[in-house]
Amino acid sequence: MTRLNHPHSHPHPHPHPHPRPQHRPQHGMARWMRLGVCGCGAVLLLSGALWLAVHYSIGAGADQLPHPLEAWSLRLHGLAAFAGLFLLGAVAAAHVPHGWRLSARPRWMQQRGSGLMLCSLSGIMAATGYLLFYFAPETVRPALGWAHAFVGLLVAGLLLSHRGGARSA
């Protein structure tokens, strides 16, 4: 049977009940990017919180021997941080320029400010994480670690606010 004679070679005579959109919304991220940012952000938040809880309750921060969960939570946190840096690059290349153009419209103006804060705080997170892992002397480590944790919480809250603002605009 040739392709032209094949029973399914012609278009369906009726439209599909739920046609797929041909492009992403004007204001949003690609689905893979949004899921990546949310998933990676959740892993970063949870692994960081787990490390803090274990370290300061039953680990080295509580004058005990380091607990095995400290090392494993940091390994997971580091892996998620690498993925997060990749996603930050993707967001900076695709979402930020598009959002910057849209934010000239009055209803999107507040998104520009929260987006700039997210980018800035993400850079601070990358820098403090790098310093903690490679360069921080023991005398500076606790303060730098708490600053890293505090900024991480700010990023999580701001990310939720930025996303919520986009939905309401």
What are the SSEs and their pairings?
Layout: H1 31-57, H2 68-102, H3 109-135, H4 141-168
Helix pairs in contact: 1-2, 1-4, 2-3, 3-4
Q: Indicate the radius of gyration in whole angstroms.
A: 22 Å
Number of strands: 0
Strand content: under 5%
Q: How many structural domains does the protein architecture include? A: 1
The best one-word shape is elongated
Please summarize the sheet with the most strands: none
What is the typical, i.e. mean, pLDDT? Answer: 85
Unreliable parts? none
Total helical elements: 4
Give the N-to-C terminal Cα separation.
54 Å
Which H/E pattern describes the elements?
Answer: HHHH
Main structural class = mainly alpha
**Helix share of residues?**
55-70%
Give a structural overview.
Helix 1 packs antiparallel against helix 4 (141-168) and helix 3 (109-135) runs antiparallel to helix 4. The protein is mostly helical. The chain has 4 helices and no strands. It has helices at residues 31-57, 68-102, 109-135, 141-168. It has one domain. The model has no long low-confidence stretch (mean pLDDT 85). The longest helix is centred in the middle third of the chain and has 35 residues, at 68-102.
Properties at a glance:
169 residues, mainly alpha, single chain
Quick rundown:
The protein is mainly alpha-helical. It is built from four helices and no strands.
